[in-house]
Amino acid sequence: MRLLGLDVGSKTVGVAQSDPLGWTARSVEIIRIDENKGEFGLDRLGEIISEKKITGVVVGLPKNMNNTEGPRVDASRNYGKMVEDHFGLPVDYEDERLTSVEANRMLIEEADLSRAKRKKVIDSLAAQLILQNYLDKKGKLIRG
């Protein structure tokens, strides 16, 4: 089982992958997209899926703090459906509330990166956190 985690925005998609056992997630890269122009980075995503032998995808859902869903949740679900249809892989979803905030905090406190440098990696780190949260929940279900 090797999964991809995706943090979908309107301009970028952060990408993370799991290890083959599905225990840990690590950042891979950020794919540039443009929702308004209908450019979704599926060619590059397909290269990553093929290269890393991906068997499933987890897409982050940016729910509101009160658990309601807004337009970005719809956009993330649409992206997940596109991935499912285009690549024939199962797609699951993970609540991503506060992952970007947590990623930013980690980069400030632990890596001491400037704002410009944080902006270059924040989406892939958020994807890593989304995927790690998903893996942790699945592991708890399996282990007891």
What does this structure look like?
The chain is built from 4 helices and 5 strands. The longest helix has 29 residues, at 115-143. Strands 3-2-1-4-5 form a 5-stranded mixed beta sheet, sandwiched between helices. Strand 4, helix 2 (71-87) and strand 5 form a beta-alpha-beta unit. It starts with a strand and ends with a helix. The protein has a single domain (3-143), classed as Nucleotidyltransferase, domain 5. The chain is 47% helix and 22% strand.
C-alpha-based Rg, rounded: 14 Å
Tell me the major beta sheet.
Answer: 5 strands, mixed
Count up the domains: 1
Terminal CA distance: 19 Å
Structural class: alpha/beta
Strand order of the largest sheet: 3-2-1-4-5
Gross CATH architecture: 2-Layer Sandwich
CATH superfamily: YqgF/RNase H-like domain
> Which percent bin holds the helix content?
40-55%
The gross shape turns out to be globular
Q: Could you please say which CATH topology applies here?
A: Nucleotidyltransferase, domain 5
Give average pLDDT, whole number: 87
Element-by-element helix/strand order: EEEHEHEHH
Give the strand tally.
5
Poorly predicted parts: none
The total of helices stands at 4
CATH class: Alpha Beta
The share of residues in extended strands comes to: 15-25%
Secondary structure elements and their pairing?
Elements lengths: L2 E6 L3 E7 L6 E8 L9 H11 L3 E6 L9 H17 L3 E5 L3 H11 L5 H29 L1
Parallel strand pairs: 1-4, 4-5
Antiparallel strand pairs: 1-2, 2-3
Helix pairs in contact: 3-4
